[in-house]
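Lecture 7 notes: from sequence to structure.

We start with a single chain of 330 residues. Read the sequence below before looking at the structure.
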Amino acid sequence: MKITNQIHDLQAVGTARCAVRAACSSATRGIGLATFQRFNVSTLQRAAGGFTLVELLIVIAIIAILAAMLLPVLHAAQVRAQGAACMSNLRQLQSAFLMYCTDDNDLVPVSHSNSSDNPVPANYYNWECGIMTYGDPGCANISYLTNPKISQLSRYLQTAKVYRCPSDLSCSNGLVGPPRVRSYTMQALIGIDNPDTASPADPTTVQSHFPPVSGGNKWLVFTKLSQVKGALSPVDLLVFVCEQPDFIGDGKFSMCMTPYANKAVWLSDIPSKYHGDRCPFTFADGHVEMHKWLHPGNIPEVVYKPNQTAPTATDPDITWFYSHCSVPTN
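Now the structure, written as tokens:
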């Protein structure tokens, strides 16, 4: 009898445990279903209503931060790409310059003041033709660059595009009109430039000296490639310049040649600083160099307007420039 009672007690405990398990399971299922239902309702409501204002502001802030980080990088990449394209143009011009010297008995191309006259004067001959001053008819005349009768380098170049820097946004009248066709000039102490001692009609005439500024010795004008030797070797002699568009005019780059550093200033021509305060130059040995200015603030910003005033400040950049243009001579 006692054993029977124990068995009944155990069965009762087991039944109670099962009842508890069933109740817990039912409660759990009820809670899970309710939670699931609430989750589905919340998700559907959010999907129907879109993002909240806070979420949108967070996304916009993240995009703004990413843009602020990426824009300088993209701009720097663009500047480098345009600089590389500009150097490629100048490399082609310098190659044409050297081929001309080889084909024309060592004579260098002419760099005298050129013309935009229509028609071009008879017997006119220059490394290129056309005045780039704002408003001049030669600004957009490609034939002044491609006509072999007036442009000495045209026979060696496949396209007139190599005469224009990709960073040069100037047009014939500032920022309006057709694009100007040329951004580059040749430094004035290469070739013939003085009508008193050399005739533009005769490019074989030799002009041997350039008058000094503020006293001192005269400066050698290179009319033959074989003259480039000694103190100023081909690797040092500057030939082509990428010029600031508000100051470019004819095909030569005029400079202040003086042995006195405190008197060296930019004259009517000023080099550019498009490429991250740098300017590309070519040299007589054929190489191209992107030169970084020490004092870029002394080079005016481009405003695409004529009759800009050249700065009068002196600085080491100007000294570096003219020291690569010629050497004093007696």
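The first strand starts at residue 171 and ends at 173. Keep this in mind for problem set 3.
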